[in-house]
Structures are given as structure tokens and as C-alpha cells.
Amino acid sequence: MATHLITGAGSGIGAEVARALLERGDEVWLLARNAGRAKETAAQFAPVAEEHGGRLRTLVGDLAQPSRLSWAFGHQTMPAELDSLLHIAGVVDLGRVDELTPKVWDATLAANLVAPAELTRLMLPQVRLVRGHVVFVNSGAGLHANPHWSAYAASKHGLKALADSLRGEEAAAGVRVTSVYPGRTATPMQVKVHRQEGKEYDPQAWIDPASVARTVLAAIDLPRDAHLTDLTVRPGS
Ligand SMILES: NC(=O)c1ccc[n+]([C@@H]2O[C@H](COP(=O)([O-])OP(=O)(O)OC[C@H]3O[C@@H](n4cnc5c(N)ncnc54)[C@H](OP(=O)(O)O)[C@@H]3O)[C@@H](O)[C@H]2O)c1
User: What's residue 237's pLDDT?
Assistant: First the structure.
């Protein structure tokens, strides 16, 4: 039974990944922003864990406050080893550069970049122990920055840099690192994006979050002789 730690399991892409891993009977640690969300998310997945013999654990850590993660984890039971560390949580706020305030920049960079770096730092010993895998769910915006997307795109460009550096640093330890770059995906985040863009939302037009989840699983399932480093996923037709 493999052990995974996943952020963002309460919604969208992360929820689909968590469900798929529990359906395999794996042990899944869900990181939630507070105790209330941890309880709700655990309740959401308890039936699937029970049906398939998967093990469900929760961790509380607010990714909006990366510098407090270390303290928060010091007061909780942590996984002893991790076959995969799956960074899926994220936030978005659109706006022109002449509108975006430092508050938006700070919140976006904290949740999308600094928290994944800090969580990786804190969990690497457990990942190294089993020559595990670190996956960052990035975005097309991590490769190209369009108008109105500066803060989010900057955070995701930074996330690519984090993944690329980590891959080089950890190769000798046998740790694999994958960035997944989805296009628009039908999740609550995309509903918010459409609202901010003033556009009508049609979920059928975008990638099913379960399909993005399959790409994450493809990366971690690959045999050790191969290393999927970067995966771009676009809406199909
Ligand atoms: N949807 C898209 O079109 C799209 C496209 C490309 C890339 N992505 C990326 O895919 C990833 C997943 O996005 P999604 O569309 O599935 O988004 P989503 O449905 O909005 O889910 C985001 C998840 O992140 C969690 N989260 C946010 N802030 C947090 C915090 N401070 N502490 C702990 N958890 C926090 C949320 O927790 P709560 O459940 O407690 O709110 C939620 O579970 C993100 O990294 C996003 O940037 C999405």
C-alpha cells in the first residue's frame, strides 16, 4: 500500500486524485487549511476509503501562511514515509497590473509558491526514505503569462522553477519530480475565473478534473526506469 500526501483534496482536481488513490486502497493524507475543513474533507472521502480498504488521515496546515506550517506540523502526527507528495491546492485572482494590490500578490505567491516550497522542505525526508515522487500541479499560466493573469502566472512560473531546481537536487536521492500543466479545467476555480472575466461558464467546454487526475496518476505510476518531468494537458474536443 502506497502512502500519499495531497493538498487541495477538498475540491476540483485534488478531490479526483484523492478519490482515485483511495479506490486503490492506498493511504492518503489530506492536508486541509483548518480543522473544520479537515473534518469535512475526511467525511467526504470516508465512504470511498471504507469501500476499498484505503486509509484516510488528515493534516491541518494553512497554505496561506507558509511560515506557520512547521509549527503546525510539530503538533500533529506526521506520515513516516511518503511515496508521493502531491501539491494540488491553489488560488487565483485576475486583474490588470495597475489594479492588483500587494495583498493579492502576497496571498497568491504564499499559497501557490512559498507554501509548496515549505511543504516540500518539511516532507522531503519522508519522500527520500522511499525514493518517492513530488508532483506540482502547475498551469498553462506557468509557461505563458496572458494579460490580467500576472500574479497567478508569476506564482506558477515560480512553481516551475521550484520543480526544476528540486528535480536536479534530488536526482541522486532517487526522488522524481513532475510538473503538470493543465489548461482550463471544470472546477470551482474555473467558475471563479469566469466570474472575474465576466464570461458565461460552460463546464462542458473545459477539461474534466478526473482527466487531469489521470495524468497525475500516470506520472507517479510510471516504472522507475522512466521519469515524466513535464506534462501539458489541454482541453480536447
Ligand atoms: N481549474 C483550472 O482551470 C486549472 C487550470 C490549470 C491549473 N489549475 C491548478 O490546479 C490546482 C487545483 O485547482 P482546482 O481547479 O481544482 O481548484 P479548486 O477547485 O478551487 O480547489 C482548490 C483547492 O485548494 C485548496 N486551498 C486553497 N487555499 C488553501 C489554503 N490556504 N490552505 C489549504 N488549502 C487551500 C482549497 O481548499 P478548500 O477546499 O478548503 O477551499 C481547495 O481544496 C491549482 O493549483 C490550480 O492552480 C487549475
Answer: 79
